[in-house]
Specification:
The protein is an alpha/beta fold. The chain is 36% helix and 17% strand. It is built from 11 helices and 13 strands. It has helices at 38-49, 81-92, 136-156, 170-175, 192-204, 222-235, 262-273, 287-297, 306-310, 314-319, 343-358; strands at 8-10, 13-15, 19-21, 54-61, 98-103, 115-116, 120-124, 127-133, 160-165, 210-216, 239-243, 278-280, 301-303.
């Protein structure tokens, strides 16, 4: 583990290792208010105790109308700041920095009045979703909602924010030319919405506040993802967390025989093109894989998501040479609704009990 457990610094944020816990929404924990619950606080405290270097809080919505689920955490109202502060404080008490991912679902929102850069219809998880075209005035409002969400994140005590620009959500829709057919200044190539959001956040937060983005590598092709990353570096983004973009309209490729997921390959290609910190993600199940992925991509951080849901203590166990367990990739992730019936957790407990009996 020559690289995985080395420390580094992102602006003023000191990070003790290269393991990042990426944003993973916990469904059914909040309600229509979007307020933080005790379960949310305990969840992030437990993750922080587990030894990861950085936590990025789950997608937290900037606007009621942009929620991916009616019970999604919110950051659209100042009244939500005290609850969010409880999460930031709980993580900081364990000596771990925490960012929060700010999000708008766009065409795949859960409500009825869905919006998109252009009128668009798609299937999402087997359900047809249709969205109307945003007006320029509405885009300006959404830009301000992102900016005010970042201001609330700073006031709540977070170390930074991550703009959610992938996984088929709104900013991803703006950056994908197969979805965004606009011919005005908000076309897919110019990335104006991200530029204006980033500039606005810089005005309402101090220079030490970290602003990164979750970016689709294939938007729709790897060449587009690289162009977007280069432009983001020019705009002064602090880090790029590479994942999948608007998957329904993307060409996700990797070379034959490549040992990691396409998203990891995307991070490798983007890392070659930019000098800002790059994070890689997908399918990392143990310390050896994490170390090899860091070496292959040259990335600054490796995301471990599902593995840490299975075992909050994943990072500590890997550091101590223990089996951290693994996600079994159930067709539907039961953990997100019922943490006590996770198949990966049950297998880990069974294996550990067997080893203890043998010892």
């Amino acid at each position: 583990m020559d690289r995985l457990f080395t420390s580094w610094q992102l602006k003023d944020v000191k990070i003790r290792n290269r393991i990042c816990v990426p944003p993973m929404v916990c469904f059914g924990w909040s309600d229509d208010s979007g307020q933080v619950t005790e379960k949310n606080v305990n969840h992030y405290r437990a993750i922080a105790k587990g030894g990861a270097g950085l936590i990025i809080q789950e997608a937290t919505c900037i606007d009621r109308r942009g929620r991916l689920s009616p019970d999604q955490l919110g950051i659209w109202d100042d009244a939500q700041i005290p609850g969010l502060s409880r999460i930031a404080d709980a993580v900081h008490e364990e000596g771990v920095p925490v960012f929060i991912q700010i999000h708008h679902a766009g065409v795949i929102a859960s409500g009825e009045d869905r919006v998109c850069p252009s009128e668009y219809t798609c299937l999402h998880k087997g359900v047809e979703k249709h969205a109307r075209k945003l007006s320029v005035e509405e885009i300006h409002m959404i830009e301000d909602e992102f900016i005010q969400a970042a201001r609330r994140a700073y006031e709540a005590g977070y170390d930074g924010v991550e703009l959610h620009g992938c996984h088929s959500y709104l900013l991803s829709q703006f950056m994908n030319r197969r979805v965004n057919k606009r011919t005005d200044e908000y076309n897919a190539e110019d990335m104006l919405i991200v530029e204006r959001i980033l500039a606005g956040i810089r005005k309402v937060t101090p220079s030490s506040f970290v602003v990164g983005i979750r970016l689709g590598a294939f938007e729709p092709a790897i060449e587009d993802g690289i162009v977007h990353a280069i432009r983001l570096e020019q705009l002064g983004i602090d880090f790029i967390n590479v994942s999948y973009g608007f998957s329904q309209e993307a060409d996700q490729i990797r070379p034959e025989g490549y040992p990691f997921a396409a998203a990891v390959y995307g991070a490798k290609r983007i890392r070659e093109a930019v000098s800002v910190p790059v994070f890689a993600v997908y399918g990392i199940q143990n310390g050896d894989m994490a170390e090899r992925a860091l070496a292959d991509t040259g990335a600054d951080m490796i995301n471990v998501g599902r593995g840490i849901l299975v075992n909050y203590n994943w990072a500590n166990d890997v550091k101590e040479g223990k089996d951290p367990g693994k996600c079994l990739y159930c067709k539907r992730c039961i953990w997100r609704n019922q943490t006590d019936v996770c198949a990966g957790q049950k297998l880990l407990m069974k294996n550990r009990m067997q080893r203890e009996r043998m010892e």
